[in-house]
Write a structure and sequence with these properties.
By secondary structure, the chain is α/β, with parallel strands linked by helices. The protein has 13 helices and 11 strands. Strand 10, helix 11 and strand 11 form a beta-alpha-beta unit. Helix 7 crosses helix 8 and helix 7 packs across helix 13. The structure holds phosphoric acid mono(formamide)ester. Phosphoric acid mono(formamide)ester (CP) binds next to helix 2.
Length: 315
């Protein structure tokens, strides 16, 4: 694996999930693998879990970490080729990526969708530019259209908590006051297609995902029907894909409540966090014994540890 940009970069996904669980059970087994090596973490957007879990994963393998918040600390980067740089951008990504590659062995990047321009977001200009101009491997810490480290952590969590070989997993849209990207939902759908699960997406009219992602998946606009007999309920908001970046629906009828969870097969509740309580999910659900949100966040460490290990071993 040269870079980790998508969940598809893992050649044997189910084996990788098992390997990550093995790392969790013996997290310091490879604690000299990263000796005298450095991981640079570049953030163009905020983070709690990704920043700290990636640092923890690196520490467990013996890496040094360097963190840079580009919006506050870095020169504003130019990503277009051949432009006269007489605007607000001070440095081209060609130099920046080459220079950062001199200081580290792996670069991890977070660069969210703008939600203004679908085509631009889908071109993944930031992460693809770093892939093109860096001389070291790149890890996606959430790009415009993908959050593969979250999806890998979610797969670990499902494997740890499933009670049947083929659990019913529901990805349900839930309301949010701000338009949010599709990255988490996209990578979750890609991931679920790789594991043995009975999968359905419930979302309101106008909220389908990119058909390249959602195609061949069961979808419904009837949330309560979807929740029946579910073993896992994964709640997530995303903005409209068709009316890109827009909020079409914002009422509380899609919120996950205890009453809705009663329709399920005593399902586990999942969310990637951060979550808006009592907008996406009621306090009673997120605080219930069936909530896995803290376990998901914990598993971010071992998902990232596996990816760092594979990249440094060139596996
Ligand atoms: N789930 C997740 O990526 O969390 P952060 O945005 O806090 O990193």
């Amino acid at each position: 694996m040269k870079n980790f940009i998508s969940i598809d970069d893992l050649s044997d996904f189910e084996k990788s999930v098992s390997e990550a669980i093995d790392l969790k059970n013996n997290s310091l087994k490879f604690n000299s693998l990263g000796k005298n090596k450095s991981l640079a973490m570049l953030f163009f957007n905020p983070s709690l879990r990704t920043r700290l879990s990636t640092q923890k994963a690196a520490q467990n393998l013996g890496f040094n970490t360097m963190v840079m918040n580009f919006n506050d600390e870095g020169w504003k980067l130019e990503f277009q080729n051949g432009v006269e740089m007489n605007g607000s951008s001070s440095e081209h990504v060609k130099e920046a990526a080459s220079v950062i590659s001199q200081y580290c062995d792996i670069i991890a990047i977070r660069a969210f969708a703008s939600l203004n321009d679908k085509e631009a977001d889908e071109s993944e200009l930031v992460i693809n530019s770093f892939c093109k101009y860096s001389s070291v491997p790149i890890i996606n810490m959430e790009s415009a259209t993908a959050h593969p480290l979250q999806a890998l952590a979610d797969a670990i969590t499902i494997k740890e908590h499933k009670k049947t070989n083929r659990p019913k997993v529901v990805l349900t849209w839930a309301p949010h006051p701000k338009p949010l990207p599709h990255a988490v939902a996209n990578s979750f759908v890609k991931m679920i297609k790789k594991i043995n699960a009975d999968f359905v997406i419930s979302r309101p009219e106008g909220y389908h995902l990119n058909s390249k992602i959602e195609g061949q998946v069961n979808t419904t606009t009837d949330q309560e029907e979807a929740l029946k007999n579910a073993d896992f309920v994964y709640a997530k908001n995303w903005c409209s894909y068709k009316n890109y970046g827009k909020i079409l629906k914002n009422d509380s009828s899609w919120k996950i409540t205890s009453k809705k969870m009663n329709l399920t097969n005593n399902a586990k509740f999942m969310h990637c966090l951060p979550v808006r309580r009592n907008i996406i999910v009621s306090d009673s659900v997120i605080e219930s014994p069936n909530s896995l949100v803290i376990q998901q966040a914990r598993n971010r460490v071992y998902a990232t540890q596996l990816i760092l290990k594979k990249l440094i071993e060139n596996e």
